[in-house]
Amino acid sequence: MKVLIYTSSGGTAHDSAAEAIRQWLERERPNIEVRVDQVLERSSSTYRGGVELYNWIQRRRPWLHQIYWRAMELEDLVKPGTVLFGRQYLIRELQDFRPDVLISTHPHTNRGHFDLAKRVLGNQLRCITCCTELDGGFGFSRNWLSRRTDLFWALTYEVVREVRRRRPGVPVELLGPLLYPDYHDGGPAPAAVEGLPLLVLGTGSNGANNHIPLLEQLLPFAGQLTVAALCGRRQIVREEVQAWVDRHPALAVQVLDYQGPDAMADLYRRAWAMVSRPGARTATEALFMGCPLVFNHYGTTMPQELIAPRYFHARELESAIRRPVELSSLVHQWLTNPPAYLALRHRYQQHLLTADPSTILERLALE
């Protein structure tokens, strides 16, 4: 059996979901040949430019996503039941690899892509949408929904409900999150963390962050907590943060570049809290690991970044900041009122996202 996974680096969640599926299949189903393709970037210069623009906006001008996202919701105008940009690349890959299963982890590789794939290989090709969102409503892209999907893989009941409301008849199932094996193997974080609190400042792989303004607000808490500042894959970001840390030795800060799954799973288990933009993957990981998450709405909030806070708010898990000074207030509140913090952490334990990898793999491979 062969499995082809479509993804794109526009956001961290999609590549992470694709890579996690690949790792699980290779570990548990070694007889299956798996290929992961960042298909938007590789198939067309038009799509590649769109992904680069997305990541630039996220790093530099988040408010522009209010326009970008709405424009992308009209994608059907340029791919009506098929794919126009990168079409020959897609056909060549499908004919060369001839997958039995095609999995999409990105909203813009479903509509049109599934239609084209089935025309090339036939209706026996099993097309699966692996949706990375936690909830429905505004911000949930219509591009996730294709009538050509054979299985819509949902992480939560809220997404199941959204799919049934928008596209009755689409075969949707609640399977839960399949994270990297390191997350599942080691289990969630403990109910309480010991020692000096560790606050993790998160970022995506593209390094989008406002770490230095946040670190400035944490200076009064030197000696009361430690900080890990994640800088993604951008060396310039790490150098800027490290230079600030060198000038402020009183605050214990560890500056980290991109961390692999084993290191990130360990950070979640040790963290007092994680500060991050409200992206889908970090939110899913925090819910799976039981680690309190502080949504960092710096710049502005993208429409798709409204989804995770909506899910958290419904469960009284939401903590959020819009200005760096608000992080100082939140940290002070938690440090001076440990019972309130422990109550929040207990709620995370009550609302852990769970999944059975063996069940998911069976559904993917139809075994």
UniProtKB/TrEMBL annotation:
GO terms for molecular function: hexosyltransferase activity. The keyword Thylakoid does not apply. Its main location: membrane. It is found in: Membrane. Residues 204-295 form the Glycosyl transferase family 28 C-terminal domain. GO terms for biological process: glycolipid biosynthetic process. It comes from the Bacteria. GO terms for cellular component: membrane. InterPro entries: Diacylglyc_glucosyltr_N, Glyco_trans_28_C, Glycosyltransf_28_UgtP. Residues 14-165 form the Diacylglycerol glucosyltransferase N-terminal domain. Pfam families: Glyco_tran_28_C (PF04101), MGDG_synth (PF06925). Gene3D superfamilies: Glycogen Phosphorylase B. Keywords: Glycosyltransferase, Transferase. Belongs to the glycosyltransferase 28 family. This is UDP-N-acetylglucosamine--LPS N-acetylglucosamine transferase. It comes from Cyanobium usitatum str. Tous. The lineage of its organism: Bacteria, Bacillati, Cyanobacteriota, Cyanophyceae, Synechococcales.
